[in-house]
Structures are given as C-alpha cells and as structure tokens.
Design brief:
- There is one protein chain.
- By secondary structure, the protein is an alpha+beta fold.
- It folds into three domains: 3-79, Arc Repressor Mutant, subunit A, CATH 1.10.10.10; 89-148 and 250-275, D-Maltodextrin-Binding Protein, domain 2, CATH 3.40.190; 163-238, 3-Layer(aba) Sandwich (D-Maltodextrin-Binding Protein, domain 2).
- The chain is 43% helix and 20% strand.
- It has ten helices and ten strands.
- It has helices at residues 3-15, 18-25, 29-43, 59-86, 104-112, 130-135, 191-199, 205-213, 225-228, 258-275; strands at residues 48-50, 55-57, 91-96, 120-125, 141-145, 153-161, 163-168, 219-222, 234-238, 245-252.
- The strands form three sheets. It has a five-stranded mixed sheet. It has a three-stranded antiparallel sheet with strand order 8-7-9.
- It is globular, with a radius of gyration of 24 Å.
- This is LysR family transcriptional regulator.
Length: 278
C-alpha cells in the first residue's frame, strides 16, 4: 500500500466528496475515483458507500481512516527526524517550563554522564503541546502532565504530585491552612476542566499567576510550583482530596533509538530515587 494511496483515501474520507477531495489534492476527480477503487480492490473491502448524492464511510473506511492518519503522520515524522539527524546527532526533549517536577536538571546531568550519550536540546513548549511535537518528529522524548493524547506514544510515569489551590492572597479561603475540593466548588471530575478554563487566554504560568494575584482566577497547580514561584500576592494552600497531578515521560512508540532508551532509563532511575527520598 503506497503512501499516495493513503493520502488520496484520507482526503476523500475527510471531505466525503470526491470533487472537493480532488481539488484539495490538486488532481481531477476521475483519477482519484480510480485510485480509491484500486485501493478497495487491493484491500478486498469497500471503504465508501457511494450514491449520486452522497459519499459515506463504511466501518472498514472508519478503521482505515484512523490508521492512515497515524501512518502518514509517522512518515512525515520520520522525514523530520532524518533531516534533524543530518544536522548532527542529538536528542530533543520537549517540556513545558516548570512542568518537570524538579526532575529535568538531574535527568540531564545523569544522562550526560552516560557512555555514548548525545547532546540534548531542551525545547520549551506550550500547554500540552508535547504529544504533537513527538508525533510530528519535532521532539524525541517529552515530559508531560496527564491527561494528554497518548496516540502513538509509549509512556513511563515518573511522579505523582499533590495539588495545591492557588488563590489571591486576599481571597477568603487563603486564611485557611488547608482546603478541600468542595471549598472551591469542585469535585474530582471537574478538576481538569477547571484547570483548563483557568489557563485559557494565558500563554504561560507567569501569566496565570498574575491573573491569580489580580483575583481573576483560582486554579490548582502541582505542589512543586510553590517553591519556585513564591509571590506576595499569591497564596498556595494544600487541597486534601484533589487528585494528584501525574508527570510522565513520553516518546514515539515506533522509536528504536538507543539514545532515547538510555534517557528513559536514566529518567526512571532519577524519579525512583526522588520518590525514595534519595
């Protein structure tokens, strides 16, 4: 099965219209229709139900669309990794600034001491951008907080941190030593949605904390943030029943890089030592 056949199929499967798909691909409809019929014959299945007025995917077409997207993304990612390799061997590690639970520096230091280690370029990225960078071949490994889209990725849990409420220093709840989710009008199911809403319109943690200090938002953050961002206008309070925030290491499932494997091994060792208080 050729990549061109898959690209043709994805265009039709997404547009559900041969004329629009052909325009998107820069070809005319007749050769596109012939290519789809050849693909159906090759696979021995019907991918589309066609009438004079509509095109719909069959169950087989739905399955192939999901798999074809992953396969085409993987091909494009392989090309990007090859181009990066031509520039010189290195690992690209994607991480959100201050989204490493304090593990990034010891991981990099231990990895650099390993025989045959490669230079590591740290790519700072936006909220939950790491999985996309991994699938696109723009990063080799990433530190990322759950929940995230793990399609096409392997992962290793490194840390589970308690969450703290982040409030303006003058907020009534800031007078208390500890809180529960109900004090914030939340429950375990609404925590992630609430955090996403607090992030909306803010590019980074510094902007979120500014909004908190101004009394515009109340949010939840990993407890490790409290020692890094002490601010006179911001109060951090433990939330006893908040679900922990889980930090994982993620990398492409198809990766066969020994350098990536070595960094994963080092990261798990560092994380285990941190959990054991070593």
């Amino acid at each position: 099965m050729e990549s061109r056949s898959l690209r043709y199929f994805v265009a039709v499967a997404e547009e559900l219209n041969f004329a629009r798909a052909a325009e998107r691909l820069g070809i005319s409809p007749p050769p596109l229709s012939r290519a789809i019929r050849r693909l159906e014959a090759e696979l021995g299945v019907t991918l589309f139900e066609r009438t004079t007025h509509s095109v719909t995917r069959t169950p087989a077409g739905d399955v192939l669309l999901a798999e074809a997207r992953v396969a085409l993304d993987a091909l494009e990612a392989a090309g990007r990794r090859a181009r990066r390799a031509a520039e010189g061997p290195k690992l690209v590690l994607a991480v959100k600034a201050d989204g490493d639970a304090g593990l990034l520096e010891p991981i990099l230091a231990r990895y650099a001491s390993q025989p045959g280690s490669l230079p590591v370029a740290v790519r700072l990225c936006g909220w939950q951008e790491q999985p996309r960078l991994l699938r696109a071949g723009e990063a080799d490994v990433a530190l990322v907080h759950a929940p995230f889209d793990g399609t096409g990725l392997d992962t290793e849990t490194l840390a589970a941190e308690p969450r703290v409420a982040v409030l303006a220093a003058g907020h009534p709840l800031a007078a208390r030593d500890r809180l529960e989710l109900a004090d914030l009008g939340l429950d375990a199911r609404s925590v992630e949605r609430h955090i996403d809403e607090a992030r909306r319109g803010h590019d980074d943690l510094a902007q979120v904390l500014t909004a908190v200090a101004l009394g515009k938002v109340v949010t939840l953050l990993p407890a490790s943030v409290t020692s890094r961002y002490p601010r006179p206008g911001v109060a951090y309070r433990p939330v006893l029943d908040a679900p922990p925030v889980v930090l994982s290491l993620a990398w492409p499932r198809q990766s066969r890089s020994t350098a990536t494997a070595a960094l994963v091994r080092v990261a798990t060792e560092i994380a285990e030592a941190a959990r054991n208080g070593a």
